[in-house]
Amino acid sequence: MRYHFIEDHRSVWPTAVQCEVLQVARSGYYAWRKRPPSRWAQRRVELTDRIQAIHAQKHQNVYGAPRIHKELVAQGHVCSRKTVAKCMKAAGIQAKTVKKFRVLTTDSNHSHPVAQNLVNRNFTPAEKNQTWTADITYIPTDEGWLYLAGSRICSRGRLSAGRC
Predict the structure, then answer these.
(1) What are the DSSP calls for 78-144, one per residue?
(2) How far apart are CA 24 and CA 19, in angstroms?
(3) Helix (H, G, I), strand (E, B) or coil at 12
């Protein structure tokens, strides 16, 4: 960790001063610079590349560490979920969170009068055109939500299975 700091700040402070302040031998720092990356570091780079590929191709970047881990295991790469999470964090890869859609149409905290329930779950009117049924649905569009409402007059005098 100290060697990485020295490497990152070579243009700011002299190497000798940094080694003295951080209490490391200059020879150790220079040996570290010449040393090739360890097998584990190479594996971590390869794993991070595979994680980036899976994250980019699977469902518009919504896969997190558990799903990416499952995909890596399915492809034959042995690793733990925590290793995947650490590689994702180091590479700045995050899953997009998708909010669950929730329709909010009722505002119960208002001072407006509430209409009486005249039907009172009696869907067998005595005469025609006394009971109407209605429904509303939401249609997502690029410009926002459209609300579609429809109504029917119960002409037969009964309502069965949602139909007049």
Answers:
(1) ---HHHHHHHHHHHT--PPP-PPP-------S--SPPPP-SSTT----SSTTS-EEEEEEEEEETTE
(2) 5
(3) coil
pLDDT tens digits for 63-97?
888 888 998 899 888 888 999 999 989 888 888 77
pLDDT tens track for 4-26: 888 888 888 888 888 888 888 88
Other Cβ atoms less than 10 A from the Cβ of 111: the count is 4
End-to-end CA separation in angstroms for the chain = 75
User: What's the pTM?
Assistant: 0.49
φ/ψ of 150, rounded to 5, equals -135, 150
